[in-house]
Amino acid sequence: RRAIFTFGNIQQRIAARDIPRVVRTLDQEALVTALAGAEGVGMQPSADFILENMSGRMADALREEVADRDPANGAEVEGAMATIVQSIRDLETSGELLLIMSDGDAE
What is the pTM of this model? Predict the structure, then answer.
């Protein structure tokens, strides 16, 4: 049985070294939208984890895009986060990424 995995689980379930691999597969607009709306939906720790574990230059560029972006509505943010989660699941399915199992995961 597959464990539940959401955007909010990113910092607990993905190794820091895998963040660059994840980011390379993401649509830039979805990533910016998710990062911009993370604080408003209580997901700032995941957004911070993503930014802290990529190249400083890329993180700075994303922070600028987030700052320049118009505020996203809740549906846009949720859609962007769902897109990111699906990309991560696709990487897991293809064997390119292993999710860290948490104590509460079913065997």
Answer: 0.88
Q: What is the pLDDT of residues 88-106, one digit of tens each?
A: 999 999 999 999 986 655 4
- Which residues, other chains included, contact 98 with Cβ-Cβ below 8 Å and sequence gap of 6+? 15, 92
Cα distances (Å, whole numbers) of residue 27 to 2, 12, 58, 102: 25, 22, 14, 27
> How many other C-beta atoms lie within 10 A of the C-beta of residue 62?
20
Dist CA 53 CA 61 (whole Å): 14
Cα–Cα distance, 33 to 54 (Å, whole number): 17
Question: In whole angstroms, what is the distance from residue 12 CA to residue 52 CA?
Answer: 14
What does the block give as tokens for 92? 């897991």
